[in-house]
């Protein structure tokens, strides 16, 4: 029920999200020329072949996942990695990687139609979700297409876990959408597993 209400509110507030993006652009928090990406619209051609989508919301997540991206590309010469971020600073970090096999896009808002447009265009063969920013509609849409979905460098604080325990069915559903969850620590892994995350393993903190 909570998920249905959330989706309905996102659809209802779509005009507000567009205004919000414009306001953020005026403040330098979005790139004006790329605002359409927040609605799942891209001006970059999708390359042929396999493409993995990595969502790394901001600077910390982006820095931590870039070494993994490099390893993936070294082991798979025909692979393209699409990295999405929310912040401009994180986008700049991806740009500095200067690798033709890496594409950056701003993540679409968690609107059903915009997420569907994004997935229809990029057609990822797998998705890596960095840390703990959970967007229900996006994750549900990935799962519905039977695209393998992995949480990497997963974390969940005591405070966040306590909050989610008030909505056990909702968080259990969201976490069940992941095929594998790789946690930063034993504590993070235990909290994720207790809330419904499947196949939890402890991989250590990628930032270190």
**What's the mean pLDDT score?**
92
Strand content: 15-25%
Major beta sheet summary: 7 strands, parallel
Biggest β-sheet: strands ordered side by side in the sheet: 3-2-1-4-5-6-7
Class from secondary-structure proportions: alpha/beta
Q: Shape from CA axes? A: globular
Characterization of the model:
The protein is α/β, with parallel strands linked by helices and 208 residues long. The protein has nine helices and seven strands; from the N terminus they run H-H-E-H-E-H-E-H-E-H-E-H-H-E-H-E. The protein has a seven-stranded parallel beta sheet, with helices on both faces. Helix 9 links the parallel strand 6 (180-183) and strand 7. Helix 3 (59-75) runs parallel beside helix 4 (88-97) and helix 5 (112-122) crosses helix 6 (136-144). It is globular and about 40 Å long.
Features:
about 210 residues, alpha/beta, 7 strands, about 45% helix
What topology emerges from the helices and strands here?
Blueprint: H1 2-12, H2 14-26, E1 51-55, H3 59-75, E2 80-85, H4 88-97, E3 102-106, H5 112-122, E4 126-130, H6 136-144, E5 149-154, H7 158-164, H8 168-176, E6 180-183, H9 186-194, E7 200-202
Parallel strand pairs: 1-2, 1-4, 2-3, 4-5, 5-6, 6-7
Helix pairs in contact: 3-4, 5-6
């Amino acid at each position: 029920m909570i998920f249905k209400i959330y989706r309905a509110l996102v659809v209802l507030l779509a005009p507000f999200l567009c205004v919000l993006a414009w306001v953020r652009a005026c403040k330098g928090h979005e790139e004006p020329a790329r605002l359409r990406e927040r609605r799942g619209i891209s001006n970059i051609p999708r390359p042929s072949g396999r493409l993995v989508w990595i969502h790394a919301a901001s600077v910390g997540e982006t820095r931590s996942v870039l070494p993994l991206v490099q390893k993936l590309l070294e082991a798979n010469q025909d692979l393209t990695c699409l990295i999405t971020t929310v912040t401009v600073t994180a986008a700049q970090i991806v740009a500095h990687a200067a690798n033709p096999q890496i594409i950056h896009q701003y993540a679409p808002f968690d609107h059903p139609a915009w997420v569907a447009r994004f997935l229809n265009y990029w057609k990822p063969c797998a998705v890596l979700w960095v840390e703990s920013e959970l967007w229900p509609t996006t994750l549900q849409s990935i799962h519905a297409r039977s695209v393998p979905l992995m949480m990497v460098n997963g974390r969940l604080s005591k405070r966040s876990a306590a909050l989610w325990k008030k909505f056990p069915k909702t968080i259990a559903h969201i976490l069940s959408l992941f095929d594998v969850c790789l946690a930063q620590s034993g504590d993070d892994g235990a909290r994720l597993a207790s809330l419904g995350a499947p196949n939890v393993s402890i991989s250590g903190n990628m930032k270190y």
